[in-house]
Recover the amino acids of this structure.
């Protein structure tokens, strides 16, 4: 583990990662958008990281699901260990030359990998790349992502798109919770021996999927 980026040793033995959005009281009552905060937990529900989104109020109001952001992820000691950077880009299949990209750094300032949206007329598709921009994995979502009364799974696949090795799931946690707070609850399942840098990139992919497909959807309700 001495070769791992500082702070990523927590991911070394994990094959399941839970991401839970923290809802501010003002946002829950008035519907006012505030900076998103997340807890990142292991399968036992123990918090291993805390994440905070940074952007301007103007970006959140005007650009909402396609907004640029920086998410800083810190360990329980308050040390920033992962930084997720998303530039403002298009969110439409009509503009295949300007699709979504996301950069993940760990430690901050050092590239761990990228998430790149792939053009497809029907399905949400993404490629996970390492720090050298070499393709490592694919993520393929369902045709419909409304998630009415059920979980929504984005499959993590080998590059041939034939073998499924994991998934990113948006959990449906109940009508009252989602309609009044629209909280994000995600689970990431990957092989335990997957490179921890790629696990960090998968966390970034989870944030991107949330913003693209679930930010204002209220899970289809």
């Amino acid at each position: 583990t001495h070769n791992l980026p500082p702070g990523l040793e927590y991911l070394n033995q994990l094959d399941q990662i839970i991401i839970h959005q923290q809802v501010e009281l003002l946002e829950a009552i008035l519907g006012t958008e505030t900076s998103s905060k997340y807890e990142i937990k292991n399968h036992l529900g123990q918090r291993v990281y805390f994440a905070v989104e940074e952007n301007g109020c103007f970006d959140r109001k005007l650009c909402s699901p396609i907004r640029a952001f920086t998410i800083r992820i810190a360990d329980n000691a308050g040390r920033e260990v992962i930084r997720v950077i998303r530039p403002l880009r298009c969110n439409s299949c009509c503009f295949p030359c300007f699709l979504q990209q996301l950069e993940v750094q760990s430690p901050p300032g050092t590239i761990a990998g990228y998430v790149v949206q792939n053009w497809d007329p029907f399905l949400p598709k993404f490629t996970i790349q390492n720090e050298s921009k070499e393709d490592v994995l694919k993520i393929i979502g369902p045709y419909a992502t409304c998630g009415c009364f059920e979980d929504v799974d984005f499959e993590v696949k080998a590059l041939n798109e034939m073998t499924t090795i994991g998934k990113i799931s948006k959990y449906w946690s109940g009508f009252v919770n989602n309609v009044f707070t629209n909280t994000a609850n995600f689970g990431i399942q990957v092989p335990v021996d997957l490179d921890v840098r790629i696990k960090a990139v998968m966390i970034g992919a989870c944030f991107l999927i949330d913003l693209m497909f679930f930010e204002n959807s209220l899970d289809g309700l």
